[in-house]
Amino acid sequence: MSSIAQRARLSAPASDPRAVRRARARLWDRAMTGVLWGLAAGLAALLAAMLIYLVARGIGVINWQFLTSEANGGDGAALFNTFYIIALALLICIPLAVGAAIYLVEYAKQGPFVTAVRFATETLAGIPSIILGLFGFLVFVTEFGTGTRFGVSRLAGALTLVILNLPLLLRVSEDALRSVPNDLREASAAVGASRFQTVWRVMLPTALPAVTTGIILTAGKMIGETAALIFTSGGNSPAVGWFSLNPFTVGDTLTVHLYELQAEGVIRNAVQIANGTATLLILLLLVFNLGIRGLASLLNRRLAGRRS
Amino acid sequence: MIQNMENDTREREILGSDIPVGQNIATITGSVKMRTLDLNVFYGKAHAIKNVSIEIADRQVTALMGPSGCGKSTFLRALNRMHDLTPAARVTGVVKLDNEDLYGSSVDVVRLRQRVGMVFQRPNPFPKSIFENVAYGLRVQGGYSQSEIREIVERSLQGAALWDEVKDRLTHSALSLSGGQQQRLCIARALAVEPEVILMDEPASALDPIATLKIEELIDQLKERYTIAIVTHNLQQAGRVSQYTGFFLTGNLIEFAPTREIFSRPADKRTEDFITGRFG
Lengths: 308, 280
Hints:
By secondary structure, chain A is mainly alpha-helical. Chain A has twelve helices and no strands. The radius of gyration of chain A is 27 Å and the shape is flat. Chain B is an alpha/beta fold. Chain B is built from eleven helices and twelve strands. In chain B, the strands form three sheets. In chain B, strands 8-9-10-5-11-12 form a six-stranded mixed β-sheet, with helices on both faces. In chain B, strands 4-3-6-7 form a four-stranded antiparallel β-sheet, with helices on one face. A two-stranded antiparallel ribbon of chain B has the order 1-2. In chain B, helix 4 runs parallel beside helix 7 and helix 5 packs across helix 7. The two termini of chain B are 23 Å apart. Chains A and B meet through helix 8 and helix 9 of A and helix 3, helix 4 and helix 7 of B.
């Protein structure tokens, strides 16, 4: 057979070296696909196993009473405190971060100042949370606390959370504002809007979906904060009435509560409650993460799919 | 025609300017709405517009044409101080609107941009409803009642030949319109603040031929009430739409004349080469 005729056949005899090489390549391709698939599946399985194990241990503990009251070491207070501290922290963090982002994107001239700010925020982002927790303790609890109603309080905890999460929210807000196309800025200016009006009426509303996603992401991160809150807001909550909105009261969040139960549990069924708390936390985080995805796709659709 | 002004003093008298006057001013017959004298624009070190002196006729269409990168858009943006938004840009010279220097120290830029509107190459409606897009300029100014706004929005959309197509869906997102409709929306948005001059930076270059035709018809109607300066790289468009045409090349204004003249008897060889398509 001539070589042309040989090449024309799609399935060559096994002795043809080129065919052998092709077969080996096919085999290798299939093998590696299998390996990668296995890795991914293994990872997913590991995660699922972890979650199922933890949730299963504690799911039995969760009932309405557990969620809402403090009796028998119920998690009601801790749950409320978690939301309260996050809300308080966001209340302070959002205007700061968004305001700073607006300044950096719209008003600041690129130069040493902006570089310094960026360096500072990035360094801040890298500081371990326990150190920031200690900082919060030294500044908010001790310095500001002596002789005032401050001291270990949910406000101190919230402020520490602000410091901890400001870099993230700032970066997200900045990216959101920068991603607004420049021609919108021009269009607004061309019709006679001042710079602030452009920011307020065009840039911010357009960046809002991305900023909102960032806020929710930050909130999700805050759910898990422990080290920052142990010294600043948490201890065992005294019986203040768990619906208290007073920021100056002590209040432990779910994670701090979990830590305390594990480390110092003196109540009878500490282990049980710890399991329940852990389960609650995991479920909360799952709900949050699913919520972010849902919200993000909803907001993107609302924006007619043109930008981002 | 480009004339040499021999009598500097008389020029300064007429124009009321204290700065030395350019030698070659592109003049027109009839009333002048805007004029520039020795306009220079620098982007950092690059000298983008070199000593351009030109007169823009009142309620006529002036086309500015030239090859890519010749500076015609840069020139246009100097007329409504859009370069203020770019920190690296520097503008020298005089730009006058009805004999008032736009780069003077007491000029309110916001008010200026209401009097001299701009439509951009790519349609850039805000991600808001159609109604809110047109009403934006009014809301930004403030002081209009809701009924006044509704009236002006309708008038502007009619002026932009878009009303019939959108009157039933004013609350829909502007982004749901086609490209040509979006561009007409941007024109309506510019019309809403009742400008005297409309600057158009290649308004139809991102549109299909039918939409382009609609825009050109619109421009022809608009010139009854507004002074229009349009930048275009499309020669035929310049010929169809304008009464005066200026030819730019690497930042210089090479030739400026009534459109029929410049296309039939260009005075400069470079203009002729451009028109006949030898480059561009």
